[in-house]
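WARN no homologs supplied; continuing
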Amino acid sequence: MNCKDGGEIELKQEQEQEQELKQEQEQEQEQELEQEQEQELEQELEQEQLDWKDDIGIERIDCEYKVFNFNPLKLSIDDGAKYLSSGIFSFNDSVEETLGNYISIYLPKYICSFFNPRSMLKKSNLYFGIDDDGKVIGIPYTGRIHENFINHMIDKVFSSHMKFPSTQIKDKIRQLVKVEIIPVSKTKIVSKQTNPTPFPL
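OK structure emitted
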């Protein structure tokens, strides 16, 4: 009996070790795949740039556009006077808050749509800064919006605004949500303003 019990214990330990090894290999493969995807995304970002008012095509079942509107626009009287006198505008605080609102409202909705098994979508995109006709409007942010900032807001939405059958499913879907920030050229804005003013035409 003791020999038999000892053999069963050894067999169980071997199975557990094999399972742990298999899990480690799967994790390594997932990490390698993520690194490859990140590198591909970085290369695409280096090459990709849009011009203001570019037409990128109409919305599709796998591609949704949201034009960017301030909500809320935090602008004090002193800030307004400064912008009017200098002609230099910066609404970064309002942009960041509005992006947070957009992500909390639209991300859960379109994740449910894009990840619906009936949709059979392999890849889908949700754009902010493009109107319903596919015209590039952009987001009036001074400087560069960092991916880490957007990812942090997405993490908050996943934690507090969405429910999943399990933590494993939530983590898996979160890994599939990638952030891509595409620069918008201002050349067309300048060329269209034959009589430049502090206000957008």
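The longest helix spans residues 2-47.
OK
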